[in-house]
Amino acid sequence: MDAGRWETIQSLFHSVADLPEAERAAALRASCGGDQDLMDEVLGMLAADGQSAALLDDGVVPLAERVMGAPVIPPEAYQDVGPYQIQRVLGEGGMGTVFLGVRTDLGSVAAIKILRDAWISPARRERFSLEQRTLARLDHPNIARLLDADTLPDGTPFFVMEYVDGEPLDGDYCDRHGCSLAQRLRLFRSVCEAVQFAHQHAVIHRDLKPSNILVTADGAVKLLDFGIAKHMGELDAVADLTRTGLRLMTPAYASPEQIRGERAALHTDVYSLGVVLYQLLTGRLPFDVGEQKSLEAALQLVERDAVRPSLVARRVMDKSPGGRNLLAASASAWADLDVLCLTAMHKDPRRRYGSAEALIRDIDHYLRGEPLEARPDTWSYRLGKFVRRRRQAVAAGVAALVAVAALVVFFTIRLTTERNAALAEAARTQRIQRFMMNLFQGGDTEAGPAKDLRVATLIERGVQEARTLDQDPAVQAELYQTLGEIYQKLGSLDQADGLLTSSLERRRAIAGGDGPGVAESLVAMGLLRVDQAKLDDAERLARAGLQLSRKNMGADHPAVATATDALGKVLGEQGKYAEAIPVLEEAVRLRSAPGAAAADLASSLYELANVYFYAGRYPEAEALNQRVLAISRRIYGERHPRVAEALVNLGAIQQDLGHYAEAERFHRQALPITQAYYGADHYRTASNITMVARALVFQKRLEEAVALLQQALAIQQRVFGKSHPRVASALNELGNVAVARRQFDEAKIAFRRMAEIYRDVYAGKHYLIGTAVSNLGSAYMAEKNWVQAEGLFREALAMFEQTLAPDHLNIAIARIKLGRTLLRQKRYGEAEMATGAGYRILTRQTSPAVSWLNSARTDLAEAYDALRQPEKAAAFRKELAQIQAQK
Amino acid sequence: MGAVRDAIVAFIELGLGCERRRHWTLRREEEKTVISHEDIPLEDVNPQERAALDHLFSVTYEELRRLASAVRRRDPAATLSPTTLVNEAWLKLARSPAVAQASELHFKRIAARAMRQVLVGAVRRRSAYKRGSGPAMRVTFDESLACAEAGDAQLLELDAALEELARMNPRHALMVESRFFGGLEVSEIALLLEVSEATILRDWRAARAWLAKQLER
After folding, report:
1. Is the ipTM of this complex over 0.85?
2. pLDDT at A321 over 80
């Protein structure tokens, strides 16, 4: 049957399918014009339409179950493989079946691994052959060696290995054989040696677990199954990631980074070794990761800290005869074993033993009674870890900051102790450390800080403590400013205002109206006013602070740089870019002086880059952002949000310049950093994903963009709930892409929801409501529904006029769009007025949106043609032609 | 003293993501809110097949085969539904750089194709083996094999019917393949084929009726 015939059949089918059955035949006969085949075909379809069709309606599942229910080639099918006669199946691995074979000529036994379903893909054969080549390289007494390799007559590859008749090395084995602690460690040491040997030959095993570690009757340890091993230096191909990322490995022994699907390295094996040791010491797995659990569940489990082996051993081992002799070891020996084992299986690969060899060294130290090289985690490490964990756990920043609060108190203590010179340095440090330990561990070394410890509480405590420092107003003023700035960051602007004002008063009281501290307070107040949206006040305060610090400190003092930077920020916030640029240039100059902090310089450069960007000066903005990026990488490292921000800013520049592929590249570079830092469910991650999507939209990769935008929308909804401006913004993106894909109904749904949210959030009055309505109008306009579109643009315009300055870009664009709908309705006079008004606003803008200006010119030329004003029409065509020529 | 304070304040900014310092992203987002679709040209967009996707195909192929065969082992972890399979595969593969280039929808389409080929491949292989061209020495007969053979026949018929549908209308065949083998939702297929959901439902009805008729024969 050909395409045309199918078209006919379909349309006939649809034309009669919903008719009463009695009328169908007659209707068909009328349409078929005597073509009996055609009629039969459609009748057959109609009959099938009314009945169930099990195969089609049940979907692929039952079918797949039937088809895959029996092996394609049953293992019994293999009898003779090369010179070997197959005896029985030893095991089934991820890729192959392992058989026990006897050499017919020599009578020797061997394990034969045959690739199952070799036909499926070349990747599969390649992986199998990789395993074989790996084994060939690894000639070591503790590794089962390769004997031979070949293919079956049908091309299925197989290889022959040394057959190991042994028991898996685990807690049970040790119990059965009554192994002492030292014996267990020596067995384990042999495993480490085999692994170390593989590592020396650039092979990572990636699937270390007791069933792959056998102990023979004479006590020799043999490492098996390099089926998912990896050669270092090889890039992780997709297939490779699949192998580790998907469930081919055994979750209970997999390192957190392996479960997360990251690149495997030596430390991946070190982790698994740690788990094997844990099992040898305690008879238990550190985490109960069932096979049924999803990877996500496994990851959650594995993110927890393991209970110390000594505790588990005490609980478990006295129940078994073999275990009891373990408990004979002293408490200090067990403390060392805890450190040894937990260092091997540390969550953070950088804190693990760097190699199997390092692990072997510490086993030897232990066996000889020497101190270990590994150290338990320090409080500062735990602090950092806690902050990281919390940051991902909380959405917007409610609590992460127990750590911050701790620093506040830390600071308080530091101030108090500095006041009291009698307190010795050592004692002070100790006190602070103890304080931090207690704060973060709540007395229990395994637990985090108390859950009910809240930032607000701790800052309040800080404020109370500061109040008691009346006799030392300088310190008190310092503290008030610090606490005030913290409140400001937390968004409690009233409290911030109170404290900063108090701070200013204290300083004025000490040094008169113009002491050095006064300038600092003025600048801080100025920046607070920015957050309070009192920009004129902010400018006045910043200028006063700057003038005062210049007078007091001399022109090159860091305080002057700080004040200059603040003034530049304020001017930038006000949109006074031309004024802001020289001020920030000056801040950059001051902060480039030798001895100034690189972080401060980066911060000023960042502000300056922003201002240049908003002023439309992209080359300057780009150069500055590159500098910010370089400095941030140097001082914060590769994976820091400051680095991500610089990348995003570079991407934004490329986007505005129309270099969308470059923009995409920068945003994608930023994304993993943002994700790792803030977590997958964070609005910043969503925002970064959106940036990538935008770059894709302009590259016309709409399908990919939609997928990302939906991801971003889902995150925003999870974080902020259904009705939030960020959700609205995500809907807007989706709506715009839907219009581009000509899916107008979806676009309308998105824009309507967007408008609803904004109406809800802003109580019916905000320019963003206008934006939503205007974009809804654009969807109608794209459908050529000029009347609906006109009404919506008028509604949007009314909202903009209520909420924005008369010459705002949005008003101009809305007028141009309105003009377009009027033009298409042949209402040329009205169109000329609307578009002309928009055009005049745009030409007054510092950085006009060129595409809109061009639309306006085109429309105006058309309108003037119709209104018989050819000179005016010609003038606009000329402008257009000039712009074309410039391109 | 000032340095300590700066350090603390910087720390807070990092922890809280202070809005003032980060007005950049926010402001850019708002600015973009006004930019509407008219900047985007409207011609048909169809992401080209890339080398990365070819690779993705063979990986998907592997993964689906493995998960499907978990059914055979009565593995309780194998809650086999095409949607689950494809979603799981996507979740895991989305992390790899090559796949990050592909959209989820595109991936699902490829996964559906892979599912079909895995099953058809298994059937063809089994029949070749039964005909004696495999490395066969012994053939055991059991119930699961009988059941599998019944499934094999149905699958081959469906595959052939789909081939014919593809000759008549490739988009209809793609629709059936995506829905049946990949478990794609109607809304997803609509996005994929860039038509409305109503169109998909309508086309599905006709294609289903035709296929059912073919299979009955």
Report:
1. no
2. no
